[in-house]
Write a structure and sequence with these properties.
- By secondary structure, the chain is α+β, with helices and mostly antiparallel strands.
- It is 39% helix and 13% strand.
- It has 9 helices and 8 strands.
- It has an 8-stranded mixed β-sheet, with helices on both faces.
- Strand 6, helix 6 and strand 7 (176-179) form a beta-alpha-beta unit.
């Protein structure tokens, strides 16, 4: 186990720098930092921008996200920053990206089920977000979002309070929203589910780009799309849990 991987353990000595914290919080930190490391391996990061946040159990309004200035591969369980719903630092070394947390804070505040929020600028997703038709039901991966995808128009870099309201309305109760010309937001009831859904979305977008606009694309009938969506959602909140150990091994064996 290399020096980085040693930090991804409940028994890591480096926990001492954080003072007394519960094993629950340690596990969330481990899983969230793993998600950051995996996102880096999948080329989902964008320099020091974009974020993944996760709620801390039993601490209402407290969330973890990356320190602003670190790349995803530099995130560890110990250097994640604890913030409240407004992005104010509760513990850890800042700074945090306030404009970035405007998105995360708005989603966490509006969606009690959104325990983990991914806001990424993945190339494939931005490309599809710029297409008028949005995500097409042309792959089994895309069908996971058949009734679970919202769309939000691009309105510039800064997220105003008015845009926060519009963004939350466009997200609704869905797991994902495509931000036109910008990227995506993916919500999960757990870090595991949110990561899995982001992985599925990335693949669905890549497939759509590979299919291109040459010739007539084949889409299943609406009734089959609806049936498949229901089948793909049959695991409920357990979605992503079975896959998570395999994702963890990708990082640990890297």
């Amino acid at each position: 186990m290399n020096s980085l991987h040693q930090n991804f353990s409940l028994k890591a000595q480096s926990w001492d720098s954080l003072g007394p914290i519960s094993d629950q919080e340690k596990q969330v930190r481990i899983d969230l930092a793993t998600a950051y490391q995996l996102a880096h391996l999948k080329n989902w990061d964008d320099g020091i921008y974009t974020h993944i946040s996760a709620a801390i159990p039993a601490e209402e309004g407290a969330y973890l996200l990356n320190q602003f200035g670190l790349r995803f591969n530099e995130v560890t369980p110990q250097n994640l920053v604890k913030v409240n719903i407004e992005g104010k630092i509760l513990s850890g070394d800042g700074p945090v990206n306030q404009s970035g947390f405007a998105i995360h804070g708005a989603v966490h505040a509006a969606r009690s089920d959104a325990h983990c929020v991914f806001h990424l600028h993945a190339d494939s997703v931005i490309a599809v977000s710029a297409q008028k038709q949005g995500l097409l039901p042309i792959s089994q991966h895309a069908l996971r979002f058949y009734q679970d995808m919202g769309y939000h128009p691009y309105q510039g870099l800064a997220l105003s309070s008015q845009e926060q309201t519009a963004l939350i309305a466009n997200l609704g109760n869905k797991k994902a929203v495509l931000l036109h010309n910008h990227g995506s937001i993916v919500c999960g009831t757990s870090i595991q589910q949110a990561f899995y859904l982001m992985d599925v979305l990335d693949k669905a977008c890549n497939i759509q780009l590979l299919a291109g606009s040459h010739g007539e694309l084949v889409s299943p009938p609406a009734a089959i799309c609806e049936l498949t969506y229901e089948q793909l959602c049959s695991d409920g909140d357990q979605e992503g849990q079975l896959e998570w150990p395999a994702y963890q091994r990708v990082f640990m064996n890297h």
